Amino acid sequence: MQMETYQDEEFFTILNGGYIKTVYQPIISLQSGSVLGYEALSRICLPECELNIEQLFSIARRVRKLWELERLCRTTALETAAKKVPCSKLFLNVDPNLIHDPDLREGFTLEKLEEYGLSPDDVVFEITERSAIGEMKIFTDSIAHYQKQNFKIAIDDFGAGYSGLNRVSVLHPNYIKIDMELVRNIQAFANKSSLVGSIVKFCRGMGISLIAEGIETEEELDTLIRLGVDYGQGYYLGRPQDKFTEPSIDIKLAIKEKHSKVTTFVQQLSVFGTIDSICRHEEAVQIQFPAVDIYQQMQQDEQIREKFVLNSDGTICGILTRGYLFERFGGQFGYNLNMKRSAGKLAQHSFLQVDRTATIDDVARLAMERETSRVYDSVAVTDQGLYFGTISVRDLLMATIHIQVQRATQANPLTGLPGNAVIQGTISSALKNNRPFSLIYLDLDNFKAYNDAYGFPNGDRMIKTVANTIRTCCRDDDLKGHIGGDDFVIVSALCQTDAVQALCDRIVFTFGESIRSLYNEEDWNRGYIISQNRHGFTENFPIATLSIAVVTNCGKSFASMEELSQAVAEAKKKSKHRQL
């Protein structure tokens, strides 16, 4: 009790004396190394204070001074926010329990933003359910409160609390921050890599940006870039500082190089072309350019549909679409209110940006997954993080239709997976450019016996089950091919033994679960079917399984396709003995 009284005294000393300072940690693009924003972290600056910031908020909840402490921290963070990198965002942590605090004053943050020359677009509220007391409703109510005011939302500590994928689907935040426990030594744990890879796939489908927290080593950074995580934060990228700092040149170059290796490999997997082949090199404007001049240009030329707005370093600040700009300058007072504003001040910061090495089909998917009001906006194309050009949705869809026609002519008619021409072209390109890859060869065991006993229609169902299993278990970036008959191939950028093993285990398990409905109950329970062998004699044949052989050029180079084929043949012999 005496300790509690002493801590309460320290709490009120800090609160009444304003002994809070803010440090800012950068959140970095794992594609270009540019700054997305900064997380504002509150620190106690009372000399010889024994409390930490978590304890301070715990006391605030107990003594019912949560809003007073939150207001102090938020005001301190916003005071210097105007000095941040242009168009970067400020991530503010918020206690979800604050939503039901009777002293909470709505509109406080908006007032402060106006006071310091900022807008809601500059702020992301970072909310974690770890501290939501009593029930999940507090967490969801808190998110709804800030979304209603047009603030962007990040769910913090994802993977450590209640916020499963179903709940995220309902809440639809702008960002998800992966809990640092998932990031720690991720390169050494296949289950962590697999889980983060699944989260990446989910977030892409939902249009949510993914941020990995707690990156402390180069190995962690490498793995996260390979998995396709959008942004990163941690001591390896930048420590919290009193001022708004950017990552070092070495870090930026390293990120660009690592990402370039990944995207080059993905480009090879899609032999149908990359986005730079259909990109238009449209002129963009700088942030200080008068918005009224753009408005007048659009009035005179109806072919101008949008203008991208650039920061001084060539990165993209935002977009000014024709409809949005006409709306801002329209009405009774629109022109007078906005005629002196710069392009940077009016720019919308919600836009789709892709690297020029991205595949056409991937970009088309991302473009059509945007919210309805933005789905027809042009896509910004970058080169190592810098503005390169634009691509219209019409051109994108026309190119995609062309791709689909090509795929249809080269795909296996039963499974729809790419056939020999695409597979060999992809492998040859990877060998030629010495890009790391794993070639995973899958062979369906005991298929002939099943086909003879159950008939060709069911045999086709079995083949399709293998194809669907591969589609389900593999990453989007993996090439999934059907050589013919019961032979399949996966070409993956995965090279680490644990990660490849985890993928193979997942395929075997999923296939085993999927084929049960293809057998009658008697055969399944018995564990084998009775059929004739190739010599016409009756024989017992086990339930179908998969043999998987893996060959990788990581640590071993292959001079030719023939040498690689020999290595695959040897691996296939070994896999047949194991009968996975």
Q: What is the helix fraction of residues, given as a range?
A: 40-55%
User: What sort of overall outline do the alpha carbons produce when their principal axes are compared?
Assistant: globular
Biggest sheet overview: 8 strands, mixed, barrel
What is the count of helical runs?
22
Write the layout of secondary structure elements.
Elements: H1 2-17, E1 20-29, E2 35-44, H2 53-62, H3 66-79, E3 89-94, H4 108-115, E4 123-127, H5 136-148, E5 152-158, H6 165-171, E6 175-178, H7 180-183, H8 190-206, E7 209-212, H9 218-227, E8 231-232, H10 249-269, E9 285-286, H11 291-300, E10 306-310, E11 316-321, H12 322-329, H13 334-338, H14 343-346, E12 353-355, H15 360-368, E13 379-383, E14 386-391, H16 393-410, H17 420-432, E15 438-445, H18 447-454, H19 456-473, E16 479-484, E17 487-492, H20 497-514, H21 521-526, E18 528-532, E19 538-542, E20 545-552, H22 561-578
Parallel strand pairs: 2-3, 3-4, 4-5, 5-6, 6-7, 7-8, 9-10, 12-13
Antiparallel strand pairs: 1-2, 1-8, 10-11, 13-14, 15-17, 15-20, 16-17, 18-19
Helix pairs in contact: 2-3, 3-4, 8-20, 9-10, 11-12, 15-16, 18-19, 19-20
What can you tell me about this protein's structure?
This protein has 580 residues and is an alpha/beta fold. It contains 22 helices and 20 strands. The strands form 5 sheets. The protein has an 8-stranded mixed beta barrel with strand order 1-2-3-4-5-6-7-8. Strands 16-17-15-20 form a 4-stranded antiparallel sheet, sandwiched between helices.
